[in-house]
Specification:
509 residues, alpha/beta, Rossmann fold, Cytidine Deaminase, domain 2, 3 domains, six-stranded mixed β-sheet, binds ligand FAI, purine biosynthesis, IMP cyclohydrolase activity
Length: 509
């Protein structure tokens, strides 16, 4: 008896060649509607699925292969005499190879103007069922879900070199594939019902690239992306120049771009170890970068710079004067590219920065995962509360809001000093707030005179305010909410300092 291959594919690339190869290896091809048509048009001999099932394809393709003649042929164990006897008694012929890829659910979901009905119709039922039956019986059935496997499968059959290990690898790929497919469907339904934290949380990611190593060279790592991109992402950024991104590069570039989305005017952000070491905002992108650079000319060395406007020649000249790992921007002028590509070690990336990714953020802990929505909270001129005798001047208020946007992205405990749309001191990741303030103040030096201070969380005591006043800080922004708020307010009032509350905390751990 001829061996039998069942082919039912939505993505028909390379299928004619593969089917032809199987025919040459003496396989009988069984196929479903559209696939059969494609094969017959290419003169590949094949029979229709209803010749096997004795049942027509009905309900617009909702029922084609869901039949015991198909699933018996896939699930029956060839080494089990009872199964063989039952197959014979029910006139079930074995199927030896299954080639299936599924209705393009994901592509349909993201296509413009798609209707709910189209989305639902693109949930493949028969395909995953066949894949799972065949994958369960991988000892006896070769299951092919990925067109990349057509050639190795054909070659393996040709020279009789297909091992059990290879069969199992194909089966493993199937279960990953159907799990990914189902996860995307499950998440679509979740968005429809509006549930946020169901009893099980299904995530799926698709590989972007293996990485040379993780945070440190002894750690292994890879980069995976969300299959449904709902905002800006480094996974879809375009690299124009330089070496492959590293694990730390991706984290830092992500941090830089996230900070940048806070600012509408031309802005530049320099990042080191996921903290901003310099942020500048100005009329032009060249000036903004100059401010970000001057904010901390030491830390920027080997850092990552993100800019929210096209990099022009003038900015490129400035950027090229220092060693940077990455420059990332919406675009680069031709001249800027010419200047920057002369530097072999710099990585240049372009990326859409307008949208915010508002998906959930997952942080693993041993044995579990914490899930929260991203910190997209913000305040504006109208939503801050003045709590001191003196209200901030308009200029102070603008600087306070600039500093508040910056401090949101600094590891807690965080203090930022800023002046004239430039960060001048960043105290990050300290275990006490006044310690963070001292670092920011020391970095600001003489520039602290006339600056403003932002704190990511409230002041448990007035010591931070006292330190700030000593160096000439004139206005402060903080969430408020401490039992001892009044102590800080009193110190401000004694010195004519303005303080505003945001009513919103920005811890970042
Ligand atoms: N309903 C079924 O019995 C069924 N059997 C196979 N399919 C899918 O139909 C597609 C191929 O259809 P066609 O050969 O008609 O182009 C494949 O993606 C396959 O996974 C089915 N469709 C959806 O569930």
């Amino acid at each position: 008896m001829k061996k039998r291959a069942l082919i039912s594919v939505s993505d028909k690339q390379k299928i004619v060649e593969f089917a032809q190869g199987l025919v040459e290896l003496d396989y009988e091809i069984v196929s479903t509607g559209g696939t059969l048509k494609a094969l017959q048009n290419a003169s590949v001999p094949a029979i229709s699925i209803d010749q096997v099932t004795g049942f027509p394809e009905i309900m617009d393709g909702r029922l084609k292969t869901l039949h015991p003649k198909v699933h018996g042929g896939l699930l029956g164990r060839r080494s089990n005499p009872d199964h063989l006897q039952q197959m014979e008694a029910n006139e079930i012929e074995p199927i030896d190879v299954v080639v299936v890829n599924l209705y393009p659910f994901k592509q349909t979901l993201v296509s413009e103007g798609v209707t709910k009905e189209e989305i639902i119709e693109n949930i493949d039922i028969g395909g995953p069922t066949m894949l799972r039956s065949a994958a369960k019986n991988f000892d006896d059935v070769l299951v092919v879900v990925d067109p990349e496997d057509y050639t190795p499968v054909l070659e393996g059959i040709k020279d009789a070199s297909i091992s059990l290990e290879f069969r199992q690898k194909l089966a493993a790929k199937v279960f990953r594939h159907t799990a990914n497919y189902d996860a995307i469907i499950a998440n679509y339904f979740l968005t429809q019902t509006g549930e946020k934290f169901p009893e099980t949380y299904t995530v799926t990611y698709e590989k972007v690239q293996s990485l040379r190593y993780g945070e440190n060279p002894h750690q292994v790592a890879a980069f995976y992306k969300n299959p449904i991109q709902n905002g800006m992402s480094l996974a879809t950024a375009k690299q124009l120049h330089g070496k492959e991104l590293s694990y730390n590069n991706i984290q830092d570039a992500n941090a830089a771009v996230e900070i940048l989305t806070e600012y509408d005017l031309p802005a530049a952000v320099a990042v080191k170890h996921m903290n901003p070491c310099g942020i500048g905002m100005a009329e032009s992108i060249a000036e903004a970068f100059q401010l970000a650079f001057d904010a901390d000319p030491i830390s920027i060395f080997g850092g990552i710079v993100a800019l929210n406007r096209e990099v022009d020649a003038q900015t490129a000249e400035k950027l090229s004067e220092i060693f940077l790992e990455i420059v990332i921007a919406p675009s680069f002028s031709e001249k800027a590219l010419e200047i920057l590509t002369q530097k072999k070690n710099i990585r240049l990336l372009t990326m859409e920065m307008a949208q915010k990714d508002e998906s959930f953020k997952l942080t693993t802990v041993d044995g579990g995962v914490l899930i929260q929505n991203k910190d997209i909270g913000s305040v504006d001129v109208g939503s801050v509360e003045v709590v001191t005798d003196r209200a901030p001047t308009e200029e102070e208020l603008q600087n306070l809001l600039f500093a508040w946007k910056a401090v949101k992205h600094v590891k807690s405990n965080a203090i930022v000093l800023a002046k004239d749309n430039q960060t001048i001191g960043v105290g990050a990741g300290q275990m006490n707030r006044v310690g963070a303030a001292r670092i920011a103040i020391e970095q600001a030096g003489d520039k602290a005179l006339g600056s403003v201070l932002a704190s990511d969380a409230f002041f448990p005591m007035p010591d931070t305010v006292e330190e700030a006043i000593k160096v000439g800080v004139t206005a402060i922004i903080q969430p408020g909410g401490s039992k001892r708020d009044q102590d800080s307010i009193d110190v401000c009032n004694e010195h004519g300092i303005a303080m505003v509350y945001t009513g919103m905390r920005h811890f970042k751990h």
